Amino acid sequence: MEDVTLEELRRRLGDGDFLLLDVRTAPEFAGDAGAHCDPRQGHIPGAVNLPLERLLECRSANDVRAFVGLPEGAEVIAYCHTGTRSDFAAQVLRGAGYEARNYAGSWHEWSRVVPS
After folding, report:
1. Quick one: residue 78, left, alpha or beta (phi over 0 = left, psi -120 to 50 = alpha)?
2. What is the domain class of 6-113 according to CATH?
């Protein structure tokens, strides 16, 4: 499945027709931790935090769906810091029946290009 681009995410943000899932740790999401290479810390507006480590505790597709709380087939866009964790999360989510894609630019790109 094709990755989400910055332009697509900016265009669709606020539509409400997908779940934007930040799979970083809770401190990264809150802006209390993060990579020093980013000009700022925080998260993309409208994102929901579901750390990859918590997602990986699920043992079945039903567990994933119960944890995420969306019906099978729902669209999910995942992101992290550089797109690695979110790519893995998107694979797990697709295995659980979601239409999941990765925003490969993730926070590393967003924090540089989109004003706070």
Report:
1. beta
2. alpha beta
